Amino acid sequence: MNKSDSGPLQGLKVIELAHIMAGPVCGRMLADMGAEVIKVERVPEGDAARGFAPPLVEGESAAFMMMNRNKRGIAVNLKHEEGRTIVESLLSDADIVIENYRKGTMERLGLGYEKLREKNPGLIYCEISGFGRTGPYADLGGFDLVAQGYSGLMSITGESTDRPPMKCGPPVTDIGAGILATMGVLAAYAQRLKSGEGQKVDTSLFEAGITLTFWQSAIALATGISPEPMGSAHPLNAPYEAFETSDGWITIGASSESTWQRLPAVLGLKELLEDTRFIKNIDRMRNRMVLYEELAPAFKKRKTDEWLGLLKDAGVPAGPVLDICDMLKHPQTLAREMVVQTKHPSIGPMDTIGFPVKFSETPAKIMNGAPRIGEDTSEVLTELGYSKEEIERLIKEETVIAIT
User: Fold this and answer.
1) For the domain with range 240-244+249-320, which CATH number is right: 3.40.50.2300, 3.30.70.330, 3.30.1540.10, 3.40.50.1820?
2) How many CB atoms lie within 10 A of CB 105?
3) What's the whole-model pTM score?
4) Catalytic residue among 32, 47, 95, 174, which?
5) Third-level CATH fold of 13-212+330-401
6) For 17-34, what is each residue's pLDDT tens digit?
């Protein structure tokens, strides 16, 4: 697999000792920005995400391929002494290591931060876990569903307290922790450029979930009252939610005073502007359900596209509720290169989600699809100085998996 020739992080070497999602999110973002990311998978099963299916594409998990593009992949048995030696060699000159094993696992393998920094003081050691490496829950594993519950996200997601608890659709604490980890390691790298010293970076799914509760935590801290689920509505602004049209749904963001002033005329409800229940945002929030009942019947009189045209002309923020397939085909998605094509080593050309940050001088580049298990083992071991005969022996002894 070719190394990146583009992106602002060219020259950085990252070792990803991570599986499923939060760690691989961090690794993928670094790889997309040009870092050389070597993903170390377990023997014999590899990353558990390889079993996330359906769908499978020619035997490969679509979910795994989405998370692990642009990476080189090796498979090493860390229960074997020689396997640990291989990883130690990789880490001896690495800039960043990402790991999301349970607390104490890396130390038991002889790959903990304190030991590694003795040989590589500039190493940035990123730990992603369920609840962080300190505190009474530091030993608990990390699962998005559990973290959404603990972080309060499930208490504010859904239609009302009369309905069962609901998680956010995507695994937002996994993804959020991966993004926070990316931010953390790049901040640590910026500090290393000044000091020459690496450091440990520690974040978690729990903290990612808490971070996403900015508005609701602000309300709770100020009032001592926990906000409740509000469907698509906003806890601080109104009208700011989805309304049913004659053929679908539309989202309305008339949350500022200026946009609110424009909305009633479009709906043929100018009298609402004089209604004392709706004069200011604080009034509209106090009477949010009454306001919804006034607005909802009007939206059902036209199709979504008709409303979008009228609201655009009036300067009222609005949009459709697209399904994922429609989103992926949307002209703005394509214009922003958020669906791009890459080449998988066995499947060939395939589409994937693009990189969400655009750089004017050093653009991110999606070069390669996700590696097959052991895709680059032989190549990486050769770079470490292993002979062909030694590699064949390691394969036979099941210390590594390699595609030869």
Assistant:
1) 3.30.1540.10
2) 14
3) 0.94
4) 174
5) Rossmann fold (3.40.50)
6) 999 999 999 999 999 999
